[in-house]
Design goal:
The chain has 205 residues and is α+β, with helices and mostly antiparallel strands. Helices cover 31% and strands 28% of the residues. It has five helices and ten strands. A hairpin with a 2-residue loop joins strand 9 (159-169) and strand 10. Helix 1 packs across helix 4. The protein is globular.
Protein backbone atom coordinates (compact mmCIF):
# COMPACT_ATOMS: atom_id res chain seq x y z
CA UNK A 1 0.00 0.00 0.00
CA UNK A 2 1.37 3.41 -0.98
CA UNK A 3 2.03 5.90 1.80
CA UNK A 4 0.75 9.49 1.55
CA UNK A 5 4.27 10.78 0.81
CA UNK A 6 4.52 8.39 -2.15
CA UNK A 7 1.12 9.54 -3.45
CA UNK A 8 2.19 13.19 -3.23
CA UNK A 9 5.42 12.49 -5.14
CA UNK A 10 3.55 10.30 -7.61
CA UNK A 11 1.00 13.00 -8.39
CA UNK A 12 3.84 15.51 -8.84
CA UNK A 13 5.42 13.17 -11.42
CA UNK A 14 2.07 12.74 -13.19
CA UNK A 15 1.51 16.48 -13.29
CA UNK A 16 4.99 17.10 -14.70
CA UNK A 17 4.54 14.39 -17.34
CA UNK A 18 1.09 15.59 -18.37
CA UNK A 19 2.09 19.25 -18.51
CA UNK A 20 5.21 18.54 -20.54
CA UNK A 21 3.42 16.46 -23.17
CA UNK A 22 0.44 18.80 -23.33
CA UNK A 23 2.66 21.87 -23.76
CA UNK A 24 4.54 20.10 -26.56
CA UNK A 25 1.26 19.56 -28.42
CA UNK A 26 0.14 23.10 -27.61
CA UNK A 27 3.39 24.52 -29.01
CA UNK A 28 2.90 22.51 -32.19
CA UNK A 29 -0.64 23.95 -32.35
CA UNK A 30 -2.23 20.54 -32.08
CA UNK A 31 -4.47 21.70 -29.23
CA UNK A 32 -5.83 25.09 -28.11
CA UNK A 33 -5.71 26.60 -24.60
CA UNK A 34 -9.04 25.09 -23.49
CA UNK A 35 -8.09 21.66 -24.77
CA UNK A 36 -4.72 21.99 -23.02
CA UNK A 37 -6.35 22.28 -19.60
CA UNK A 38 -8.68 19.37 -20.36
CA UNK A 39 -5.84 17.08 -21.48
CA UNK A 40 -3.74 17.92 -18.41
CA UNK A 41 -6.62 17.17 -16.05
CA UNK A 42 -7.57 13.96 -17.88
CA UNK A 43 -4.01 12.62 -17.75
CA UNK A 44 -3.61 13.69 -14.15
CA UNK A 45 -6.78 11.91 -13.03
CA UNK A 46 -6.89 8.87 -15.29
CA UNK A 47 -3.54 8.48 -17.05
CA UNK A 48 -0.64 6.21 -16.16
CA UNK A 49 3.04 7.01 -16.52
CA UNK A 50 4.11 3.40 -16.88
CA UNK A 51 3.31 0.69 -19.42
CA UNK A 52 4.10 -3.00 -19.90
CA UNK A 53 6.72 -4.14 -22.39
CA UNK A 54 7.62 -7.71 -23.37
CA UNK A 55 11.19 -8.56 -24.24
CA UNK A 56 13.66 -11.44 -24.33
CA UNK A 57 17.28 -12.16 -25.11
CA UNK A 58 20.48 -13.08 -23.33
CA UNK A 59 21.98 -9.61 -23.74
CA UNK A 60 20.40 -8.27 -20.54
CA UNK A 61 21.05 -11.26 -18.25
CA UNK A 62 20.82 -11.26 -15.24
CA UNK A 63 18.35 -8.34 -15.09
CA UNK A 64 16.22 -10.11 -17.67
CA UNK A 65 15.82 -13.82 -18.29
CA UNK A 66 16.89 -15.38 -21.57
CA UNK A 67 13.27 -16.08 -22.44
CA UNK A 68 10.15 -13.89 -22.28
CA UNK A 69 10.14 -11.10 -19.71
CA UNK A 70 7.49 -8.56 -18.81
CA UNK A 71 8.84 -5.13 -17.93
CA UNK A 72 7.16 -2.22 -16.23
CA UNK A 73 8.50 0.81 -18.09
CA UNK A 74 8.38 4.43 -16.97
CA UNK A 75 7.41 6.94 -19.64
CA UNK A 76 9.76 9.95 -19.66
CA UNK A 77 8.38 13.48 -20.19
CA UNK A 78 11.59 14.55 -21.93
CA UNK A 79 14.46 12.32 -22.99
CA UNK A 80 17.61 14.20 -22.03
CA UNK A 81 20.27 14.20 -19.32
CA UNK A 82 17.74 15.54 -16.79
CA UNK A 83 15.79 12.28 -16.96
CA UNK A 84 18.20 9.64 -18.28
CA UNK A 85 21.32 8.70 -16.32
CA UNK A 86 24.36 6.48 -16.71
CA UNK A 87 23.48 3.02 -15.43
CA UNK A 88 19.79 3.17 -16.38
CA UNK A 89 18.17 0.25 -18.19
CA UNK A 90 16.25 1.87 -21.03
CA UNK A 91 13.85 0.72 -23.74
CA UNK A 92 14.87 2.15 -27.10
CA UNK A 93 14.08 1.75 -30.77
CA UNK A 94 16.31 -0.71 -32.58
CA UNK A 95 18.62 1.50 -34.70
CA UNK A 96 18.31 -0.92 -37.62
CA UNK A 97 14.64 -1.90 -37.24
CA UNK A 98 12.63 1.02 -35.90
CA UNK A 99 9.51 -1.11 -35.41
CA UNK A 100 11.39 -3.21 -32.84
CA UNK A 101 12.63 -2.28 -29.37
CA UNK A 102 15.69 -3.18 -27.31
CA UNK A 103 16.52 -3.00 -23.62
CA UNK A 104 20.07 -1.84 -22.89
CA UNK A 105 22.10 -0.04 -20.21
CA UNK A 106 23.18 3.55 -20.69
CA UNK A 107 26.97 3.53 -20.40
CA UNK A 108 27.80 7.08 -21.49
CA UNK A 109 26.05 10.35 -22.34
CA UNK A 110 26.78 13.37 -24.54
CA UNK A 111 30.24 14.87 -24.06
CA UNK A 112 31.84 11.58 -23.00
CA UNK A 113 35.05 10.53 -24.76
CA UNK A 114 34.81 6.99 -26.08
CA UNK A 115 38.05 5.04 -26.31
CA UNK A 116 38.10 1.63 -27.96
CA UNK A 117 40.19 -1.31 -26.73
CA UNK A 118 41.18 -1.67 -30.40
CA UNK A 119 44.13 0.67 -30.90
CA UNK A 120 43.27 0.96 -34.59
CA UNK A 121 40.05 2.83 -33.76
CA UNK A 122 40.27 6.55 -33.06
CA UNK A 123 38.72 7.95 -29.85
CA UNK A 124 35.66 10.14 -30.33
CA UNK A 125 33.30 12.27 -28.26
CA UNK A 126 29.57 11.64 -28.06
CA UNK A 127 27.71 14.55 -29.64
CA UNK A 128 24.79 16.42 -28.13
CA UNK A 129 21.74 14.22 -27.53
CA UNK A 130 23.72 11.04 -28.16
CA UNK A 131 24.30 8.16 -25.77
CA UNK A 132 26.16 4.86 -25.70
CA UNK A 133 24.21 1.75 -24.68
CA UNK A 134 25.55 -1.68 -23.84
CA UNK A 135 24.31 -5.19 -23.15
CA UNK A 136 24.54 -6.36 -19.54
CA UNK A 137 25.62 -9.96 -20.02
CA UNK A 138 29.34 -10.01 -19.22
CA UNK A 139 29.72 -13.52 -20.62
CA UNK A 140 28.91 -12.34 -24.14
CA UNK A 141 31.72 -11.14 -26.37
CA UNK A 142 31.44 -7.60 -27.68
CA UNK A 143 30.84 -8.87 -31.22
CA UNK A 144 27.98 -11.05 -30.00
CA UNK A 145 26.27 -8.34 -27.98
CA UNK A 146 23.94 -6.25 -30.09
CA UNK A 147 24.64 -2.81 -28.63
CA UNK A 148 26.54 0.43 -29.36
CA UNK A 149 29.70 -1.59 -29.92
CA UNK A 150 27.85 -2.97 -32.95
CA UNK A 151 25.66 -0.11 -34.14
CA UNK A 152 27.41 2.91 -32.61
CA UNK A 153 25.95 5.84 -30.63
CA UNK A 154 22.18 6.21 -30.50
CA UNK A 155 20.02 9.29 -30.36
CA UNK A 156 18.42 10.07 -27.01
CA UNK A 157 15.21 10.62 -28.99
CA UNK A 158 15.11 6.86 -29.66
CA UNK A 159 14.71 6.10 -25.94
CA UNK A 160 11.05 5.52 -25.09
CA UNK A 161 11.27 4.77 -21.38
CA UNK A 162 13.18 3.37 -18.41
CA UNK A 163 12.63 -0.21 -17.20
CA UNK A 164 11.80 -0.12 -13.49
CA UNK A 165 10.49 -3.63 -12.73
CA UNK A 166 11.04 -6.99 -14.41
CA UNK A 167 8.94 -10.14 -14.19
CA UNK A 168 11.02 -13.05 -15.49
CA UNK A 169 8.61 -15.74 -14.25
CA UNK A 170 5.63 -15.74 -11.91
CA UNK A 171 7.97 -16.44 -8.99
CA UNK A 172 11.06 -14.56 -10.17
CA UNK A 173 10.59 -10.81 -10.36
CA UNK A 174 11.73 -7.58 -8.76
CA UNK A 175 12.77 -3.93 -9.27
CA UNK A 176 15.32 -3.20 -11.98
CA UNK A 177 18.58 -1.83 -10.64
CA UNK A 178 19.09 1.59 -12.20
CA UNK A 179 21.14 4.66 -11.29
CA UNK A 180 20.67 5.77 -7.69
CA UNK A 181 18.91 8.99 -8.72
CA UNK A 182 16.56 7.17 -11.12
CA UNK A 183 15.57 4.60 -8.50
CA UNK A 184 14.76 7.36 -6.04
CA UNK A 185 12.68 9.16 -8.67
CA UNK A 186 10.87 5.97 -9.71
CA UNK A 187 10.06 4.66 -6.22
CA UNK A 188 6.64 6.39 -5.97
CA UNK A 189 5.64 4.98 -9.36
CA UNK A 190 6.43 1.47 -8.16
CA UNK A 191 4.47 2.11 -4.96
CA UNK A 192 1.36 3.23 -6.86
CA UNK A 193 1.32 1.69 -10.36
CA UNK A 194 3.07 -1.66 -9.88
CA UNK A 195 0.63 -4.56 -10.17
CA UNK A 196 2.48 -7.88 -10.26
CA UNK A 197 -0.74 -9.81 -10.91
CA UNK A 198 -1.41 -7.68 -13.99
CA UNK A 199 2.17 -8.26 -15.18
CA UNK A 200 1.78 -12.01 -14.68
CA UNK A 201 -1.38 -12.02 -16.81
CA UNK A 202 0.48 -10.18 -19.56
CA UNK A 203 3.46 -12.51 -19.29
CA UNK A 204 4.00 -14.85 -22.24
CA UNK A 205 6.19 -17.45 -20.56
Amino acid sequence: MAYISNWVRYMAHKLEYSLTLSLKNHTKEKINDRELVGVVLKNLLYGRITYLHSGKGQEMTPTMGAHDNTLLVRKLPVVDTRYVFIGDAVVLKDPNETNKYLVRRVAALEGSEMVSSDEKEEPFVLEKDQCWVVAENKEMKSKEAYDSRTFGPVSMADIVGRAIYCLRTAVDHGPVSNSEFAMEEDSPLLAVELDVDEMAKDHKA
